[in-house]
DNA sequence: TAAACGTGAAACCAAAAGGTGTTATAAAAA
DNA sequence: TTTTTATAACACCTTTTGGTTTCACGTTTA
């Protein structure tokens, strides 16, 4: 983010697989983590990790607090509700198209259960 | 089969607000639409609309068929279930008074995945 | 105080994303 | 056949994104 407030929304924040992994990491540990601990899990520089965390912060998906010389990041899943709410619209669509969905489910099911 | 080897995955496809609008447009009309009809709703060129539809196609979120000189696009919401499934991981981190329809989809989903 | 540590910020870069206009092609209409 | 319509394909441009290295600043530790 060079200058302006680039304002990332939750859709953009979640579009990147590295950021999704960071969210699941924070969810799994179920506690706050400093950047160095987070960076251990990714093959990128700590600066790059910091940028991703900044994007997640702007989307409201993580928060941070300073503890000594550390900055600890914590999961804030609430904005995911926006995603959830958006998907709800298509949940209804699936409901209406249940027959087609059912066909898809059965077809895929037979591929792995058989045998 | 939802999204095999696509350049764009569902998360990326949905990250753009224009593409999200296209999906809701197709869902609202609940029918197939040619590009020109879709382009009417957006302040960008038809070429740009075509590119967005191409991204959505690669993500498996729309399909198309040629009818005369038209190419009609139709919503394929199934890949959104990948998004849905990812979100369910974070369900336990917010108040779990979840949407009933989501619970229904999740229940249906348990028929074909690990469960 | 000085040194080491953890982080944030800046400058920079390559590639991708989102946009444009133009051209090519196939189908419908005159 | 000729023209118009609908779309795809191509070349191109600009901004954004994800990454790097370097450096400055505040916090701990010696």
Characterization of this structure:
2 copies of one chain form a homodimer. The first copy, chain A, has 115 residues and is α+β, with helices and mostly antiparallel strands. Chain A has 2 domains: 10-75, Arc Repressor Mutant, subunit A (Orthogonal Bundle), CATH 1.10.10.10; 80-113, no CATH class. The first copy, chain A, is 61% helix and 12% strand. Chain A contains 6 helices and 3 strands. Chain A has helices at 10-15, 17-29, 35-39, 46-58, 80-96, 98-113; strands spanning 33-34, 62-67, 70-75. In chain A, strands 1-3-2 form a 3-stranded antiparallel β-sheet. Chain A is elongated, with a radius of gyration of 19 Å. The termini of chain A are far apart. Mean pLDDT of chain A is 82; it is low at 1-6 and 101-115.
Summarize the structure.
Chain A has about 120 residues and is of the alpha+beta class. Helices cover about 60% and strands about 10% of the residues of chain A. Chain A has six helices and three strands, in the order ααβααββαα.
Note the main attributes of this structure.
homodimer; 115 residues; alpha+beta; Arc Repressor Mutant, subunit A; 6 helices; 3 strands; 61% helix; disordered N terminus; DNA-binding
Helix proportion of residues of chain A, in percent?
A: 55-70%
What Rg of chain A is obtained from the alpha carbons, in whole angstroms?
Answer: 19 Å
Oligomer state of the chains in this structure: homodimer
Low-confidence stretches of chain A: 1-6, 101-115
Which second-level CATH architecture of the largest domain in chain A applies? Orthogonal Bundle
Secondary-structure element sequence of chain A?
Answer: HHEHHEEHH
């Amino acid at each position: 983010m060079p200058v302006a407030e680039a304002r990332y929304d939750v859709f953009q924040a979640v579009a990147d697989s590295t950021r999704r992994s960071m969210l699941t990491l924070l969810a799994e540990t179920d506690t706050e983590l400093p950047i160095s601990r987070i960076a251990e899990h990714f093959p990128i520089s700590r600066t790059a990790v910091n940028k991703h965390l900044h994007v997640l912060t702007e989307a409201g998906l993580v928060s941070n607090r300073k503890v000594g010389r550390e900055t600890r990041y914590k999961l804030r899943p609430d904005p995911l509700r926006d995603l959830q709410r958006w998907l709800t619209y298509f949940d209804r669509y699936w409901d209406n198209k249940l027959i087609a969905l059912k066909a898809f489910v059965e077809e895929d099911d037979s591929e792995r259960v058989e045998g």
